[in-house]
Amino acid sequence: MALGKDYAAQDCSLARALEVVGERWTLLIVRDAFYGVRRFSDFLVHLDIPRAVLSARLQSLVDAGVLVKDGHDYVLTEMGRELWPVVHTLARWAEDHLSAEPCRVFVHLACGTEIGPDGRCAKCGRHVAPEELEIHAGPGVRRRTDPVSMVLRKPHRLLEPIRT
Predict the structure, then answer these.
(1) Nearest residue to 76 (alpha-carbon basis) of 38, 42, 45
(2) Helix or strand run (H / E) with residue 86
(3) pLDDT tens, 29-74?
(4) What is the pLDDT of residues 122-158, one digit of tens each?
(5) Is 146:49 a contact under the CB 8 Å cutoff?
(6) What domains are there in the chain, each with its CATH number?
(7) Distance in angstroms (rounded) separating the CA atoms of residues 89 and 92
(8) What pTM was computed for the model?
(9) Nearest to 158 by CA among 56, 76, 92
(10) CA 71 → CA 39, 74, 110, distances in Å?
């Protein structure tokens, strides 16, 4: 029996969310959009994803209202930016349970302090919005040589567009 593409039989909000962000590669595209990746070619090289799959996932995210296409750029919408706690928490869960060291560290710009697993600044106690965060390469980041990875090694503000 073929694997279905939706969760129509499920009466569950999580199932509806998975219909939008649950396919392979989709959350990595959203993650990269938070990191400032905006162009198709940059998603392609950084994710090392098949071109047809990337096209389909980007279109799906645009159709769902998570991304908007602005010229050559794909930009997170407000709906997409609301996925930040999910992306951050899932990454922290993986760091805690599946890897030894964090690949990325997120610092609250106002306080200069790393945010915790719950998204709160350790110094001021606030939940920090993604646009108030700076991303730093962590000790567990792989030393890839693609142009996007090279740009992402340097600290920069989340959501700020990168250019390769």
Answers:
(1) 38
(2) helix 84-97
(3) 999 999 999 999 999 999 999 999 999 999 999 999 999 999 999 9
(4) 999 999 999 999 999 988 888 889 999 999 999 999 9
(5) no
(6) 13-76 (1.10.10.10), 84-157 (no CATH)
(7) 5
(8) 0.92
(9) 76
(10) 10, 8, 32
Report in angstroms the alpha-carbon separations of 137 from 35, 69, 88, 141: 11, 28, 15, 6
To the nearest 10°, the Cα dihedral for 155, 68, 130, 137?
Answer: -30
Closest alpha carbon to 48 in 138, 147, 161, 141: 147
Distance CA(93)–CA(62), nearest Å, equals 27
DSSP state letters, 119-143: SBBTTT-PBPPGGGEEEEE-TT---
